[in-house]
Amino acid sequence: MDLCHVPATREKGWYLALMAPNVKGPNYAWLDPSRLYCHPQGLQDCVADLLQPFQGDAIDMVAGIDAMGFILGAAAAASLRKGFLAIGKAGHLCVPTEAQPYRDYSGREKVMELRTDAVSPGLRVLLVDQWVETGGTMRAAIELVERLGGVVAGVAAICMENSEGGRWIQERYKCSHCVPPRLQPRFDQHR
């Protein structure tokens, strides 16, 4: 892995080539972006591309979704100079929380939670995750923020697949992702 190479021409999404395919089977996502996060320019360009549609928008806080969304969310929050809220799997916080059940991309039933004192009515939250496949995880995060009176200022992910859940989110919220239109069918079909 060459963490120093930066292409002479950096088109939106150039860093997607840094992701590695799944070699461990169906219990894992089909691509692993962790190598992208190791590449300094790749991570910077990915975050810049995710945030570009929100330039000038009112955003009070960035929330990242457990677990890989924590990486992108924290990087986005630092770039915007905003606070970061972790929305995680239930059972890890020792403070009052709000919980929401959901089904993840693999079809497993899970529960997500966030601390109740972090979101106040009217707080504008940018939700960030690594990937939106079926939309179940992101919809649970949206439900939690809105239940506490927050406003979803936008949704950002490396990829938002053209699934029923992905379309539901894109029809209702301002969204940003890094996959160029010419590559979207390949990502939707997991090839």
UniProtKB/TrEMBL annotation:
Matches recorded under InterPro entries: Adenine_PRTase, PRTase-like, PRTase_dom
Keywords, ordered alphabetically: Cytoplasm, Glycosyltransferase, Purine salvage, Transferase
Pfam families per record: Pribosyltran (PF00156)
SUPFAM superfamilies: PRTase-like
Location in or out of the cell: Cytoplasm
Enzyme class: transferase
Domain of life where this protein originates: Eukaryota
A Gene Ontology BP annotation from the UniProt entry: purine ribonucleoside salvage
Any Gene Ontology CC annotation: cytoplasm
Pathway the protein acts in: Purine metabolism; AMP biosynthesis via salvage pathway; AMP from adenine: step 1/1
Phosphoribosyltransferase domain ranges (all copies): 56-178
A GO term, aspect molecular function: adenine phosphoribosyltransferase activity
EC id: 2.4.2.7
Catalytic activities: AMP + diphosphate = 5-phospho-alpha-D-ribose 1-diphosphate + adenine
Subunit note: Homodimer.
Alphabetical list of PANTHER family matching this protein: ADENINE PHOSPHORIBOSYLTRANSFERASE, PHOSPHORIBOSYLTRANSFERASE DOMAIN-CONTAINING PROTEIN
Family recorded in the similarity comment: Belongs to the purine/pyrimidine phosphoribosyltransferase family.
Protein name in the entry: adenine phosphoribosyltransferase
Organism encoding this protein: Peucedramus taeniatus
